[in-house]
Amino acid sequence: MKFDDVLYGQLARIGRAVASGPRLALLDLLRQGPRTVEALAHEAGLTLANASQHLKVLRQGRLVEAEKRGLFVTYRVADQAVDDFYAALRGLAEARLAEVQQIAQSFVEKRGGLEPVDRRRLLKRVRAGEVTVIDVRPAEEYRAGHIVGALSMPLKELEKHLGGLPKGREIVAYCRGPFCVLAPEAVKRLRARGYRAVALSDGVAEWRAHGLPLTAGDTP
User: Fold this and answer.
1) Could you report the per-residue pLDDT of 10-68, keeping only the tens digit for each?
2) At 197, which helix (H) or strand (E)?
3) Which distant-in-sequence residues (6+ apart) come within 8 Å of 105 by Cβ?
4) What are the residue numbers of the active site?
5) Fewer CB under 10 Å: which end of the chain, C or N?
6) Taking the model in full, what pTM does it have?
């Protein structure tokens, strides 16, 4: 067998690993932080058996790693290169596929535009107390990593936190990135209650890719 055949065959392992919508969805969820198989299956709307099979393929492609803790197996993205690869793949699809462009346009029309912001200026405004940033992803994703100064307010629990949000200050909500529906939905609910709110196009993965500070744990 020729050297080229061996090389391209190995490269094809990556292609096979990501040649599935559910596997890409699982990979995107893992970009938010480590998750158990059970949590991934729930978030992705898959059966436990189906999620396990897809994760096995991703692991065979060396895109994710697994660690058993007690009775549970926790998966994580293998390294930053995998995160960058996913972002590049999504960017290529947005640039080359008209269908993806149409989906993006439909998303904007249905959910409203996401706010393009100067990231470093946003950090300064958070530190100065001029804006409140809220992370509306599930709490376990917040604990795995979040924008410095952001408050954890999962969308399902948003209403019970509203009393602690000052109406005179702008609120910036973020979730998993430009195609995540959680932040736009949070903004819709906040505006209906009289808050000044915008949805940030970035998620934690985009923030990390730009070398901006993130922190982990329960406190902002």
Assistant:
1) 999 999 999 999 999 999 999 999 999 999 999 999 999 999 999 999 999 999 999 99
2) strand 197-199
3) none
4) 175
5) N
6) 0.83
